[in-house]
Every structure is written in C-alpha cells, then in structure tokens.
Amino acid sequence: MRHAFAILLLTTIATPALANKVYVSNEKGNDVTVIDGDTLEVLGSYPVGNRPRGITISPDGKELYVCASDDNLVRVFDPETMQELHTLPSGPDPELFVLHPSGNPLYIANEDDNLVTVVDTKTHKVLAEIPVGVEPEGMGVSPDGRVVINTSETTNMAHFIDTESFEITANVLVDSRPRFAQFSDDGSRLFVSSEIGGTVSVIDPATQEITKKITFEIPGVLPEAIQPVGVRVTADGKKIFVALGPANRVAVVDGDSLEVTDYILVGQRVWQLGFTPDQKHLYTTNGNSNDVTVIDVATNTAVKSIPVGQQPWGVVVAPN
Amino acid sequence: MRFLMLLAALAATPAYAFTPTPDWPCIQGRQPHLSLGQVWTGPPPPESARETPEIAALADRVAQRRLPIEEAAAAIDAFAQGKDAGTLAVLMQAIFQRIDTQRSAILGGISRYGHRQVALAERVEARRARMAELEAADPPDFDAIDAEEEALDWDMRVFSDRQQSLTYVCETPVILEQRLFALGRAVAAHLQQ
Q: Where does the UniProt annotation place the signal sequence (chain B) (predicted)?
C-alpha cells in the first residue's frame, strides 16, 4: 500500500514531461506523430484510426481528440500514452472541429451532411445538430465561448452560431471555398481564409462586417498556387500567420496594417498551423513533403523541417 | 450492373476533392504548371545568365526520377561548393524547367488516359446493348452470344484494371513536385552559407 502511494507520488511529479509535446495527424498514414517540442525530435508514431485530420487537445492536456474521418467518429487518446480512451459520436466524415475554451463541448463540422454536431466531451452525448451551409468545413470559437463560427465551402459563408441556443445568428458571405476561421485572442477580429478565392477576410465580430480582405502575391508564384488554409494569430494580435497550401509558403501579416510582411518557404502543400504555448514556435503541416516545419515566430524564419508520417494534416501542441 | 458501378466509381469523389472529368480524371487539383517561387526563395536567375554545359548536364542528371534523391543531392553539393547565388539560381531554373516539362507531358498523358477510359466505357455499353439484342433474337445465335460475352469480359477487365492504376497515375505529378522541392532544398542549402 505504501509502495502504491509512492508510485502515485512519482507519477504526479513526473507529469511536467507532457509539456510541449507536438501531435501531428497524418491523413494518409492513419497515425499521429509525436514530437518533443524541446529537442524537436520525433518520439514516435501511433495508429489513430482511418484518415485522421482535425486534431485538438483539452485545456488540461489530458485528452487528445482526433477526427477519424473515414471511421465517422472522433477518437479520444491519452496524450501521454497514446492509448485510446474512448470515442465520441461525430456524424459522418468529421473533418475539423473546435473545442469550447472551457474544454466542453466539442463542435464538429460534418462535410457530407451539412451539419455541425455538438458533442458533450464528459457524457459523450450529442447535444445538438445544427444545419448549416453546403460542405461545412472551418470551425472557430470566440475567446468568450459565446459564438462558434462554421464556414461552408460551397455556400461560401461564415455562419455565426450562438453557443447557448445553437441557432445561426448571422451569415457573412466571403470568397470562394472558405476553409478556416480564427478569432484574435481579444475577440475583436475574425479571420476567414478562402482557398480558391485566395484571400483572408477580416471580419468585425460585433457588426459581422468584412473590414478588410487580405490578398497575397508572391514573386515567381502563379496566383492559382496561392491557396490560403490554416490561420493563427499571436496572443498580442501583432502577427497573423496564414498557410498558403501549394504555394508552399506561410504568409506573415502585420496586425496593425494588415499587410503581408513575409512569405516563409516551408514545405509542400502547407495546410494547418499550431503555436507552442509560449508562442516562440509555430508548427506547419506540409502534406506533400511529409514533414512539419518549425517557424521561429520572433524572426519569421523556418528553423527546422521534421519528417513525420504520410500526408500530415493537422497539428496541436500540448498546453503547459 | 457491374458496369454501372464501375462508371460510378469513375465519377465518385470524396467531398473534399475536385470533381474528375475525362480531361482530368484525378481527385487531386489540376495545376497546369508549377512556379519557381514554390520551391525557391533565392534570387531570380540573372537575365544575362545562360545554362553552361556543366549546369545543363547536372540538371539533366538530377531531374531523372531513377536517380535516388540522396545521390542527386550529393551531386548538387559537389557542384555548389563556392558558387555564387546567381549561379545557383541558374541551376535551380534549369532543374525547374526540366521537371515542369516532364510534369506537363504527364498531365497530357493523364488526359489521354481519362478519354480512353470514357471511350472504353462507351464500348462496354454498346456491347451490352448488342448482347441484349442477341439474347432477344429468336432463335438465339449462341455462338455469337458467347463471342460477344467474351469480348465484353475482356473490355470490363481492362477497364477495371486501368481504373485501379489511376490512383498511381494521378500520384505521378505529385511525385515530381516532391522531387523538385527536395532538389530545391538541396540547392538552397548552399545559399544560406
């Protein structure tokens, strides 16, 4: 008994080892690659079901959520052991989701049946199914947790969903094939990327008006290769990073002027982005070069490419 | 029925993907040409610069898919020692042009592949109609039915084999893009020094 207590005590002390592990979902490899955020070395890869895409972690770092698109459910793993804990119902073909800032519930975009499914992460029950536009894809949540944004690829809209009533309160028309929605940390701006339109719409969430459209031009790159997907904003709102798909670049946008200041060459078909908790590093998933690139946020430079599995799609870094 | 399913498979596409057509039967998006800026952040090649025979020979060699990428990178390393950024840009441009040309030829081939599949599907349909006619005839010509059935089986088999190969065929442009990107990294590594 005393022995068991000692072991318990040991494991409690050992938990800081979790900090800064990086989890990358590999769409074609059907696994998740785990990277040590300090040494930038791959720790291992673990099977997670069929066609893993969206990936996120609970605020306490105890549950890792993976959209297993071809299994039509969300699989939940222990981030420390990568053992499956349980699954969550998600509706068909879950692609991307967002977790409420409190850690519950989970809002999932179902591309095939034009719904956003709301799932309670504690009871594992579906709380609501919200009809949205055609081919829902991008998901974002306001920092106060009151509004969830869903973008629909074919309807070309950002839908504002009230998290209390599960009703759509506003629709904003954006450019073709909106992919991703991201709030600034102060909630004053919403960024929506349009893959085919080639733009990022900056929306004032209070008025639901588009205040600016960010466009991209890279010398020596044909415009059709510039396809904005993943977006991340630094906590101070001073830098916005935009993954530009087959342009193989991440654009850095100045938070004040909303003009592009840098185009960082990363890897092929750069798709999603994830900050470390201290925001010193930004990880990019590069689907065609099968690696992730580590960007130094202060200097806007690519510091390392790390080979992962087949077709990396999403990335999340464990909280501190 | 089996034929209908095959045809459906030709058209069926996951919602995330692009819709295949006879011109482009792949679920990957069709990018007619690559651009140098997708793989290169160094300076553009100087306007006066020409491919030297040495650069041309190196570009020819490393662009070949049968040369393992490690060997190609080693050949680039050997050449790039002490070369200025302009020379490296000329090398990069030379490699780019060769791989983009190869890739364009493959895109053309994929379109022809797509059209041949459609033509074959039409032929299968015609054979099925002919079979129905032969079977309805009174008295039926069993020899003709057997011959037609055999021809139909072969056409269906060729169709489905080609349909299975399509996955690999459609991956070829991506494989070339991966090679170009890896070669670009090898050349760019000498820029930063």
A: 1-17
From B36, B41, B181, residue closest to A268, measured CB to CB: B181
pLDDT exceeds 80 at position A13: no
Contact in structure between A96 and A125 (CB atoms under 8 Å)? no
Task: State the pLDDT at residue B11.
Answer: 40
pLDDT tens readout for residues B97-143:
999 999 999 999 999 999 999 999 999 999 999 999 999 988 889 99
Question: Which residues of chain A neighbour B18 with C-beta distances below 8 Å?
Answer: none
Residues of A in contact with B15 (CB under 8 A): 93, 111-112, 135
Q: Among residues B182, B148, B178, which one has the least CA distance to residue B72?
A: B182
Chain B residue closest to A264 (CA)? B41
What does the pLDDT read at residue B8? 41
Instruction: Give the best residue of B36, B41, B93, B171 to mutate against chain A (max A CB count within 10 A).
Output: B41
Residue of B nearest to A290 (CA): B178
And the tokens for A284? Answer: 């990019």
Q: What is the pLDDT of residue A19?
A: 59
> Which of B13, B19, B38 is best to mutate for the A interface (most A CBs within 10 A)?
B38
- Could you tell me which residues come within 8 angstroms of residue A245 by beta carbon, excluding any fewer than 6 positions away? A195, A225, A226, A227, A228, A229, A269, A270, A271
pLDDT over 50 (residue A293):
yes
ipTM, two decimals: 0.74
pTM: 0.85
Can you give the pLDDT at residue B138?
87
Q: Which of B44, B178, B181 sits opposite A220 (nearest CB)?
A: B44
Helix, strand and coil content of chain B, in percent to the nearest 5, comes to 70, 0, 30
Do B182 and A247 lie within an 8 Å CB cutoff?
no
- Comparing CB atoms, the residue among B37, B41, B174 nearest residue A288 is B174
Check CB contact under 8 Å for B34 and A225.
Answer: yes
- Is the pLDDT at B182 greater than 60? The verdict is yes
Taking CA–CA distances from A110, the nearest residue in chain B reads B15
Give mean pLDDT, residues A221-238. 95
pLDDT of B98 reads: 97
Cβ(A198)–Cβ(A217) below 8 Å: no
Q: Tokens 């030709």: give the residue.
A: B10
pLDDT at A12 over 90: no
Q: Residue A203's pLDDT band (boundaries 50, 70, 90)?
A: very high
Question: What are the domain boundaries of chain B?
Answer: 36-188
In the CATH scheme, what is the homologous superfamily, with its name and number, of domain A2-317? YVTN repeat-like/Quinoprotein amine dehydrogenase (2.130.10.10)
User: Helices in B51-84 by DSSP H: which ranges?
Assistant: 53-63, 69-80
